[in-house]
Amino acid sequence: MPQNNDLLYFVEKFPDELSCRKYLENQLWKNGPVCPHCKHKKVYKYKDGRLYKCASKTCRKQFQVTTGTIYQDSNIKLRKWFLALYLISTHKKGISSVQLGKQLGITQRAAWYMAHKIRYMLQNKTAFRPLSNVVEVDETYVGGKFKGGKRGRGSENKTPVFGMLERKGKLIIMVVPNTRRVTLQPIILQNVAKGTQIMSDEWWAYTKLSSHGYKHGVVKHKAKEYVRGDIHSNSLEGAWSLLKRSIRGIYHRPSREHLDKYCAEFQFKYNTRNDTEITRFTKTVAKSRISVKYSNITKNIAKNNSYLSTNEKEVQIQKGKRGNRNSN
Ligand SMILES: [Zn+2]
Questions:
Q1: Ligand 1 centroid to 33 CA: how many Å?
Q2: I need a surface site. Which of 247, 250, 272, 315 has the fewest CB within 10 A?
Q3: How far from each other are the two terminal CA atoms of the chain, in whole angstroms?
Q4: Ligand 1 centre and the CA of 293: distance in Å?
Protein backbone atom coordinates (compact mmCIF):
# COMPACT_ATOMS: atom_id res chain seq x y z
CA MET A 1 0.00 0.00 0.00
CA PRO A 2 1.46 3.39 -0.95
CA GLN A 3 2.35 5.64 1.98
CA ASN A 4 0.08 8.52 0.99
CA ASN A 5 -2.97 6.25 1.18
CA ASP A 6 -2.28 5.31 4.77
CA LEU A 7 -4.51 7.93 6.36
CA LEU A 8 -7.40 7.02 4.07
CA TYR A 9 -6.85 3.34 4.84
CA PHE A 10 -6.85 4.21 8.53
CA VAL A 11 -10.12 6.15 8.37
CA GLU A 12 -11.82 3.39 6.38
CA LYS A 13 -10.57 0.67 8.69
CA PHE A 14 -11.93 2.40 11.81
CA PRO A 15 -15.29 3.96 10.93
CA ASP A 16 -16.75 3.53 14.45
CA GLU A 17 -16.15 2.39 18.03
CA LEU A 18 -17.06 -1.22 17.31
CA SER A 19 -14.44 -1.59 14.58
CA CYS A 20 -11.79 -0.21 16.97
CA ARG A 21 -12.88 -2.57 19.73
CA LYS A 22 -12.80 -5.59 17.39
CA TYR A 23 -9.35 -4.59 16.17
CA LEU A 24 -8.11 -4.23 19.73
CA GLU A 25 -9.50 -7.66 20.67
CA ASN A 26 -7.71 -9.22 17.70
CA GLN A 27 -4.44 -7.48 18.55
CA LEU A 28 -4.39 -7.97 22.32
CA TRP A 29 -6.09 -11.37 22.46
CA LYS A 30 -4.43 -13.20 19.60
CA ASN A 31 -5.42 -16.58 21.09
CA GLY A 32 -8.87 -15.56 22.33
CA PRO A 33 -10.00 -13.48 25.33
CA VAL A 34 -8.11 -13.79 28.60
CA CYS A 35 -9.28 -12.53 32.00
CA PRO A 36 -7.01 -9.57 32.87
CA HIS A 37 -7.59 -10.16 36.59
CA CYS A 38 -6.45 -13.80 36.87
CA LYS A 39 -5.32 -14.74 33.31
CA HIS A 40 -8.05 -17.44 33.11
CA LYS A 41 -8.90 -18.38 29.53
CA LYS A 42 -12.47 -19.58 29.96
CA VAL A 43 -14.70 -16.54 29.83
CA TYR A 44 -18.31 -15.63 29.02
CA LYS A 45 -19.24 -12.93 26.58
CA TYR A 46 -22.23 -10.67 27.20
CA LYS A 47 -24.70 -9.91 24.47
CA ASP A 48 -23.63 -6.29 24.12
CA GLY A 49 -20.40 -7.53 22.53
CA ARG A 50 -18.18 -5.47 24.85
CA LEU A 51 -18.41 -6.99 28.28
CA TYR A 52 -16.91 -10.34 29.37
CA LYS A 53 -17.02 -12.32 32.61
CA CYS A 54 -14.35 -14.63 33.91
CA ALA A 55 -15.54 -18.25 34.28
CA SER A 56 -13.06 -19.09 37.03
CA LYS A 57 -14.95 -19.88 40.26
CA THR A 58 -12.50 -17.90 42.34
CA CYS A 59 -12.59 -14.82 40.09
CA ARG A 60 -15.93 -14.24 38.31
CA LYS A 61 -14.94 -10.68 37.57
CA GLN A 62 -16.19 -8.68 34.61
CA PHE A 63 -13.87 -7.07 32.10
CA GLN A 64 -13.53 -5.59 28.63
CA VAL A 65 -10.65 -5.59 26.18
CA THR A 66 -9.79 -2.12 27.47
CA THR A 67 -9.39 -3.31 31.10
CA GLY A 68 -5.78 -2.94 32.18
CA THR A 69 -4.85 -0.95 29.08
CA ILE A 70 -3.97 2.65 28.35
CA TYR A 71 -7.63 3.25 27.31
CA GLN A 72 -9.16 2.15 30.61
CA ASP A 73 -11.35 4.71 32.43
CA SER A 74 -10.82 7.25 29.66
CA ASN A 75 -13.68 9.53 28.59
CA ILE A 76 -12.13 9.72 25.16
CA LYS A 77 -13.48 7.35 22.57
CA LEU A 78 -11.30 4.53 21.22
CA ARG A 79 -11.46 6.01 17.76
CA LYS A 80 -9.81 9.19 19.00
CA TRP A 81 -7.24 7.17 20.90
CA PHE A 82 -6.38 5.28 17.74
CA LEU A 83 -6.11 8.48 15.77
CA ALA A 84 -3.84 9.92 18.49
CA LEU A 85 -1.61 6.83 18.33
CA TYR A 86 -1.51 7.16 14.58
CA LEU A 87 -0.71 10.89 14.59
CA ILE A 88 1.92 10.65 17.32
CA SER A 89 3.67 7.67 15.76
CA THR A 90 3.66 9.11 12.24
CA HIS A 91 4.70 12.72 12.86
CA LYS A 92 8.44 12.32 12.43
CA LYS A 93 9.34 15.48 14.30
CA GLY A 94 6.57 15.14 16.88
CA ILE A 95 3.21 16.85 17.31
CA SER A 96 2.33 19.51 19.87
CA SER A 97 -0.58 19.02 22.24
CA VAL A 98 -2.21 22.13 20.73
CA GLN A 99 -2.15 20.58 17.27
CA LEU A 100 -3.18 17.15 18.56
CA GLY A 101 -6.11 18.68 20.46
CA LYS A 102 -7.32 20.51 17.37
CA GLN A 103 -7.08 17.43 15.19
CA LEU A 104 -8.91 15.23 17.67
CA GLY A 105 -11.49 17.83 18.68
CA ILE A 106 -10.52 17.74 22.35
CA THR A 107 -9.02 20.34 24.68
CA GLN A 108 -5.29 20.96 24.65
CA ARG A 109 -5.10 19.78 28.23
CA ALA A 110 -6.82 16.48 27.38
CA ALA A 111 -4.50 16.08 24.38
CA TRP A 112 -1.45 16.79 26.54
CA TYR A 113 -2.47 14.13 29.02
CA MET A 114 -3.27 11.64 26.26
CA ALA A 115 0.06 12.21 24.51
CA HIS A 116 1.96 11.74 27.75
CA LYS A 117 0.08 8.53 28.47
CA ILE A 118 1.12 7.30 25.03
CA ARG A 119 4.74 8.30 25.62
CA TYR A 120 4.71 6.58 29.00
CA MET A 121 3.44 3.48 27.23
CA LEU A 122 6.23 3.70 24.63
CA GLN A 123 8.75 3.90 27.46
CA ASN A 124 7.66 0.50 28.68
CA LYS A 125 9.97 -2.18 27.34
CA THR A 126 8.15 -5.27 26.22
CA ALA A 127 11.05 -7.24 24.80
CA PHE A 128 14.71 -6.78 25.53
CA ARG A 129 17.59 -7.73 23.26
CA PRO A 130 21.09 -6.48 24.02
CA LEU A 131 22.77 -4.45 21.29
CA SER A 132 25.63 -6.16 19.46
CA ASN A 133 27.95 -6.06 16.40
CA VAL A 134 29.07 -2.43 16.17
CA VAL A 135 27.59 0.00 18.71
CA GLU A 136 28.19 3.75 18.89
CA VAL A 137 27.88 5.38 22.32
CA ASP A 138 27.70 9.10 23.00
CA GLU A 139 26.01 11.67 25.22
CA THR A 140 24.36 14.95 24.42
CA TYR A 141 22.65 17.81 26.26
CA VAL A 142 19.12 18.92 25.52
CA GLY A 143 16.59 21.46 26.77
CA GLY A 144 17.51 24.32 29.03
CA LYS A 145 17.09 28.04 28.59
CA PHE A 146 20.49 28.92 27.20
CA LYS A 147 22.35 27.97 24.10
CA GLY A 148 25.49 25.93 24.28
CA GLY A 149 26.29 23.59 27.11
CA LYS A 150 29.39 21.49 27.08
CA ARG A 151 30.24 18.23 28.67
CA GLY A 152 30.45 18.19 32.42
CA ARG A 153 30.76 21.74 33.66
CA GLY A 154 28.92 24.55 31.88
CA SER A 155 25.80 22.55 31.12
CA GLU A 156 23.84 23.15 34.32
CA ASN A 157 20.72 24.30 32.54
CA LYS A 158 20.63 21.32 30.19
CA THR A 159 19.78 17.69 30.71
CA PRO A 160 22.23 14.96 29.71
CA VAL A 161 20.89 12.21 27.45
CA PHE A 162 22.88 9.07 26.80
CA GLY A 163 22.59 7.02 23.61
CA MET A 164 23.69 3.65 22.27
CA LEU A 165 23.16 2.92 18.60
CA GLU A 166 23.71 -0.39 16.89
CA ARG A 167 24.90 0.39 13.38
CA LYS A 168 22.05 -0.38 10.97
CA GLY A 169 20.08 -1.48 14.05
CA LYS A 170 18.39 -0.39 17.22
CA LEU A 171 18.76 2.84 19.17
CA ILE A 172 18.49 3.12 22.95
CA ILE A 173 18.46 6.58 24.53
CA MET A 174 17.75 7.70 28.07
CA VAL A 175 17.95 10.70 30.35
CA VAL A 176 20.85 10.31 32.78
CA PRO A 177 21.66 12.25 35.97
CA ASN A 178 25.22 12.95 34.76
CA THR A 179 27.80 11.67 32.27
CA ARG A 180 30.27 10.17 34.73
CA ARG A 181 31.70 6.70 34.30
CA VAL A 182 29.87 5.46 37.39
CA THR A 183 26.61 6.32 35.58
CA LEU A 184 27.30 5.43 31.94
CA GLN A 185 29.40 2.29 32.22
CA PRO A 186 26.77 0.18 34.06
CA ILE A 187 24.19 1.22 31.42
CA ILE A 188 26.51 -0.04 28.67
CA LEU A 189 27.18 -3.30 30.54
CA GLN A 190 23.43 -3.81 30.87
CA ASN A 191 22.45 -3.01 27.29
CA VAL A 192 25.37 -4.03 25.08
CA ALA A 193 26.45 -7.66 24.59
CA LYS A 194 30.00 -8.61 25.55
CA GLY A 195 32.39 -8.85 22.61
CA THR A 196 30.68 -5.96 20.81
CA GLN A 197 32.80 -3.39 18.98
CA ILE A 198 32.01 -0.10 20.74
CA MET A 199 32.78 3.23 19.07
CA SER A 200 33.05 6.39 21.14
CA ASP A 201 35.08 9.53 21.52
CA GLU A 202 37.73 9.99 24.18
CA TRP A 203 35.36 10.99 27.04
CA TRP A 204 36.80 9.45 30.18
CA ALA A 205 33.57 7.70 31.11
CA TYR A 206 34.29 5.21 28.31
CA THR A 207 37.97 4.57 28.97
CA LYS A 208 37.57 1.31 30.90
CA LEU A 209 35.35 -0.49 28.38
CA SER A 210 38.05 -2.77 26.99
CA SER A 211 38.59 -4.26 30.44
CA HIS A 212 34.90 -5.27 30.48
CA GLY A 213 34.96 -7.56 27.46
CA TYR A 214 34.38 -5.01 24.69
CA LYS A 215 36.47 -4.08 21.70
CA HIS A 216 36.76 -0.32 21.94
CA GLY A 217 37.48 2.09 19.09
CA VAL A 218 38.14 5.71 20.08
CA VAL A 219 37.98 8.76 17.88
CA LYS A 220 39.75 11.82 19.28
CA HIS A 221 37.30 14.70 19.00
CA LYS A 222 39.59 17.03 20.92
CA ALA A 223 42.22 16.61 18.23
CA LYS A 224 39.50 17.49 15.65
CA GLU A 225 39.44 13.91 14.54
CA TYR A 226 35.93 12.79 13.67
CA VAL A 227 36.39 9.68 11.58
CA ARG A 228 39.24 7.19 11.52
CA GLY A 229 38.33 4.41 9.12
CA ASP A 230 35.35 2.69 10.66
CA ILE A 231 35.76 4.41 14.00
CA HIS A 232 33.23 7.19 14.36
CA SER A 233 29.94 8.03 16.05
CA ASN A 234 28.39 9.76 13.07
CA SER A 235 25.20 7.66 12.98
CA LEU A 236 24.44 8.60 16.57
CA GLU A 237 25.34 12.23 15.86
CA GLY A 238 22.65 12.13 13.17
CA ALA A 239 20.09 10.82 15.67
CA TRP A 240 21.06 13.56 18.16
CA SER A 241 20.47 16.32 15.65
CA LEU A 242 17.03 14.88 14.83
CA LEU A 243 16.18 14.66 18.53
CA LYS A 244 17.25 18.25 19.15
CA ARG A 245 15.35 19.57 16.16
CA SER A 246 12.18 17.82 17.29
CA ILE A 247 12.50 19.07 20.86
CA ARG A 248 13.25 22.64 19.76
CA GLY A 249 10.62 22.72 17.03
CA ILE A 250 7.62 21.13 18.70
CA TYR A 251 8.14 20.80 22.40
CA HIS A 252 10.10 24.01 22.90
CA ARG A 253 11.70 23.39 26.25
CA PRO A 254 10.14 20.33 27.85
CA SER A 255 10.74 20.15 31.58
CA ARG A 256 13.34 17.69 32.77
CA GLU A 257 10.54 15.77 34.42
CA HIS A 258 9.01 14.85 31.04
CA LEU A 259 12.13 14.62 28.94
CA ASP A 260 12.41 10.85 29.41
CA LYS A 261 8.99 10.44 27.83
CA TYR A 262 9.94 12.57 24.81
CA CYS A 263 13.08 10.46 24.50
CA ALA A 264 10.96 7.30 24.54
CA GLU A 265 8.77 8.70 21.77
CA PHE A 266 11.85 9.60 19.73
CA GLN A 267 13.45 6.20 20.29
CA PHE A 268 10.31 4.37 19.20
CA LYS A 269 10.01 6.43 16.03
CA TYR A 270 13.69 6.07 15.22
CA ASN A 271 13.54 2.32 15.63
CA THR A 272 10.48 2.01 13.41
CA ARG A 273 11.66 4.52 10.80
CA ASN A 274 11.69 1.93 8.01
CA ASP A 275 8.17 0.64 8.77
CA THR A 276 5.06 1.80 6.95
CA GLU A 277 2.80 4.10 8.95
CA ILE A 278 0.22 1.35 9.42
CA THR A 279 2.87 -1.11 10.67
CA ARG A 280 4.10 1.49 13.13
CA PHE A 281 0.52 2.08 14.30
CA THR A 282 0.05 -1.68 14.80
CA LYS A 283 3.21 -1.76 16.92
CA THR A 284 1.93 1.04 19.15
CA VAL A 285 -1.40 -0.73 19.67
CA ALA A 286 0.47 -3.90 20.64
CA LYS A 287 2.11 -1.91 23.45
CA SER A 288 -1.13 -0.54 24.85
CA ARG A 289 -1.68 -3.29 27.40
CA ILE A 290 -0.45 -1.14 30.25
CA SER A 291 -2.50 0.88 32.69
CA VAL A 292 -1.27 4.43 33.11
CA LYS A 293 -2.45 6.53 36.00
CA TYR A 294 -2.45 10.27 36.40
CA SER A 295 0.28 9.93 39.02
CA ASN A 296 2.49 8.07 36.54
CA ILE A 297 2.54 11.11 34.32
CA THR A 298 3.21 13.84 36.79
CA LYS A 299 3.14 14.56 40.47
CA ASN A 300 2.29 18.22 40.44
CA ILE A 301 0.62 18.99 37.15
CA ALA A 302 -1.93 21.47 38.47
CA LYS A 303 0.63 23.26 40.57
CA ASN A 304 3.22 24.05 37.93
CA ASN A 305 0.99 24.20 34.85
CA SER A 306 3.47 21.94 33.12
CA TYR A 307 0.78 20.82 30.70
CA LEU A 308 1.21 24.15 28.98
CA SER A 309 4.00 24.62 26.48
CA THR A 310 6.59 27.22 27.41
CA ASN A 311 5.12 29.72 24.96
CA GLU A 312 1.71 29.39 26.51
CA LYS A 313 3.13 29.83 29.98
CA GLU A 314 4.77 33.04 28.81
CA VAL A 315 1.44 34.23 27.40
CA GLN A 316 -0.18 33.53 30.77
CA ILE A 317 2.53 35.44 32.58
CA GLN A 318 2.09 38.37 30.18
CA LYS A 319 -1.66 38.32 30.76
CA GLY A 320 -1.06 38.27 34.50
CA LYS A 321 1.21 41.29 34.23
CA ARG A 322 -1.33 43.18 32.17
CA GLY A 323 -3.99 42.31 34.73
CA ASN A 324 -1.86 43.77 37.48
CA ARG A 325 -1.22 46.97 35.58
CA ASN A 326 -4.91 47.46 34.94
CA SER A 327 -5.82 47.07 38.55
CA ASN A 328 -3.15 49.51 39.65
ZN1 LIG B 1 -10.49 -14.01 36.20
A1: 11
A2: 315
A3: 64
A4: 22
